[in-house]
Design a protein that fits this description.
The protein has 1 helix and 5 strands; from the N terminus they run βββαββ. It has one helix at residues 49-52; strands at 2-17, 23-33, 40-46, 60-72, 75-87. By secondary structure, the protein is mostly beta strands.
């Protein structure tokens, strides 16, 4: 799923150790949608993504996320877990920005010029 909006709060990073002894880390934010009736959405980046996406208050972002629910002691908790964020200033990689050497070799040509093909193109 995707959501567009502006980061209005950076709630900081939290880390700890699970009961199984595994270290974990998450970074929490609040995004406000830019609609007629704006909504505030609390989300986090978990694990490696907590360090990968460093957002700042005021950034316009497109957030890709999953919604997760889990039960604990008879109560249900729901999280919005971000897995990718693109700020408004980021551009997708253009053909001119692609790494050099990514060219493909020319396609082979049949010895008679390819006229024996029954393909219409």
């Amino acid at each position: 799923m995707e959501l567009k909006g502006k980061i209005i709060l950076d709630l900081g990073a939290v880390s700890g150790t699970s009961k199984a002894g595994n270290n974990w880390k998450k970074h929490e934010y609040v995004l406000e949608t830019q609609e007629t009736y704006p909504k505030k959405v609390h989300f986090d980046f978990f694990g490696d993504n907590a360090d990968r996406y460093q957002l700042n208050v005021g950034d316009d972002v497109t957030l890709s996320f999953d919604i997760e629910s889990r039960e604990y002691n008879g109560r249900w908790y729901t999280s919005i877990r971000g897995w990718k964020a693109e700020t408004a200033g980021q551009q997708p990689m253009s053909a001119s920005a692609m790494p050099q050497g990514a060219d493909f070799p020319p396609a082979p040509i049949a010895p008679d010029g390819g006229s024996d093909s029954d393909l219409p193109f």
